[in-house]
Specification:
- The protein has about 230 residues and is an all-alpha fold.
- The chain has one domain: Vanadium-containing Chloroperoxidase, domain 1, CATH 1.20.144.
- Helix content is about 70%, strand content about 0%.
- It contains eleven helices and no strands.
């Protein structure tokens, strides 16, 4: 926990801006009706913005993310960065899938659509399975990793802006609500933070297990095969 706090303190500008954005989003969510906002912001869609956001939202698709990580690892040869981004992607994706299944009381693998979709008064948003936003979680997970590992911290805010724009693309395309992208952003940021922690402390889990193992009394340790056989014979 202390190391995670150090990561946050070393990147105050990034996390302060992220926290401020999340706070403003929560305030907006509490003061404005989400469905009404979705209808309002879909009243006008310039063709250029349609083309831009349809393509931009695909950049946080799972397939695109995996291909991008593979490019970083195998072509650019940036193994630490690629490995950490892979950790962040896996943590955020698994978390999103678990929450989706628990929230919808199902046991299936969810894939979010990236297609452009109008949202009108005649359409019920409840029919969209978008909580939380997987695209947003992936974007913030990968962006957080890159931001924390950057040597030049001046690039942190532009990179964060790219993730925020990704979150807005999900609203623009009517694939997610404000609460969907808000929770997705939190999941992604935490996943990225955990991934960087795992990069810097790869043996901490193994060391903790060894420490726990040697603190057990002989009676508490896992019995050997011979002792198990003796108990079965008795």
């Amino acid at each position: 926990m202390q190391q995670k706090a150090t990561l946050v303190s070393q990147n105050k500008t990034y996390f302060f801006t992220l926290a401020s954005t999340l706070f403003l989003s929560i305030v907006f969510l509490l003061t404005k009706e989400s469905t009404g906002f979705m209808i309002f912001q879909n009243t006008s869609h310039p063709i250029l913005l349609n083309v831009f956001f349809i393509n931009y939202t695909f950049m946080s698709d799972g397939l695109f993310a995996v291909c991008g990580i593979a490019f970083i690892i195998f072509y650019l040869k940036k193994y630490p960065l690629g490995k950490t981004m892979l950790y962040a992607f896996l943590i955020s994706t698994i978390t999103v899938q678990l929450i989706k299944n628990i929230y919808n009381q199902t046991t299936t693998l969810y894939f979010e659509a990236g297609q452009y979709l109008f949202f009108t008064n005649n359409t019920s948003y409840d029919r969209f399975v978008g909580f939380p936003s997987g695209h947003t979680a992936t974007a913030f997970a990968l962006v957080t990793v890159v931001a924390l590992l950057l040597k030049n911290k001046k690039w942190q805010l532009p990179i964060l802006a790219a993730a925020i724009l990704m979150a807005y693309s999900r609203l623009y395309l009517s694939q997610n609500s404000i609460s969907d992208v808000l929770i997705g952003a939190v999941i992604g940021a935490v996943s990225g933070l955990c991934a960087v922690y795992l990069l810097r402390h790869p043996l901490s889990i193994k060391s903790a297990f060894k420490k726990w193992k040697y603190t057990l009394t002989p009676e508490e340790r896992i019995p050997s095969t011979h002792s198990l056989m003796m108990e079965l014979q008795d």
